Amino acid sequence: MALPQLLVGKVAGITGGLTGIGRAIALDYLRHGAKVGINHLGGSGDEPHRMSFLKEAAALQPTGESIERHVVTFAGDISKPETGRQFVEHIATAFKPTGSESRGRLDVFVSNAGVCQFAEFLELSPQLFQETLATNMSGAFYAVQAAGRQMALQQSPAGGSIIGISSISALVGGGRQTHYTPTKAGVKSLMQSCAIALGKYGIRCNSLLPGTIRTQLNETDLADEAKRAYVERRTPLGRLGQPKDMAGPAVFLACEELSSFVTGAELLVDGGLYVNLQ
């Protein structure tokens, strides 16, 4: 039995959407009937990911349906203030109804792009700290601000939904993540403050806090079998998370029929790891 589509007619934007958690959310949004804009850094290294994503996305559409009607991609460094604005404008223009004079629309925005390079605190370089801060925190701020401006101008009764991908690391420390954990705490705090700032426009702002999700960001770290086994033992559900585990919660927060009174909230998606760390 096919599940109901919960996001039909919605337009969504996702930063860092070609791989990992962002990709899983993008594909589930497409399954639920949304049109999706994907931001990615760009460069030759991204192209294989972009092509494989488009192929997978096309397979979700009805036979003969052009993927260009449902997906657009936009290359740009999200740490730059102009990238978020340009990305939002690109989505709104791409999915603007034919013949319409409006600016187009954006209903859901997921600030997902992030970097995490493990490093010892006493050896951590200013360059790595600044790069992490620029992408994870400044990039989230600029992109969310651009999305909020677009949603506020729409004056839609449904408002909109902004989702920040934070981390369990916003709640616990990490000896080799002293440059990373503050940025994820910052994303959580950003969503709380944006919930207040944007509530008058009907825009809901929430954060998702993944636990240990196996992605390209932690592939090297989890190659250590002892480390992986330790995390699995401490996780009550007994396994590492997969990117697809984040997709359902992201659909929930995107759908006003399910979460119309949820804003300023943080949802742990960690298999129970946090409660077993205490």
Automatic annotation (TrEMBL):
<dbReference type="InterPro" id="IPR002347">
    <property type="entry name" value="SDR_fam"/>
</dbReference>
<dbReference type="InterPro" id="IPR036291">
    <property type="entry name" value="NAD(P)-bd_dom_sf"/>
</dbReference>
<comment type="similarity">
    <text>Belongs to the short-chain dehydrogenases/reductases (SDR) family.</text>
</comment>
<dbReference type="Pfam" id="PF13561">
    <property type="entry name" value="adh_short_C2"/>
</dbReference>
<protein>
    <submittedName>
        <fullName>L-rhamnose-1-dehydrogenase</fullName>
    </submittedName>
</protein>
<keyword id="KW-0560">Oxidoreductase</keyword>
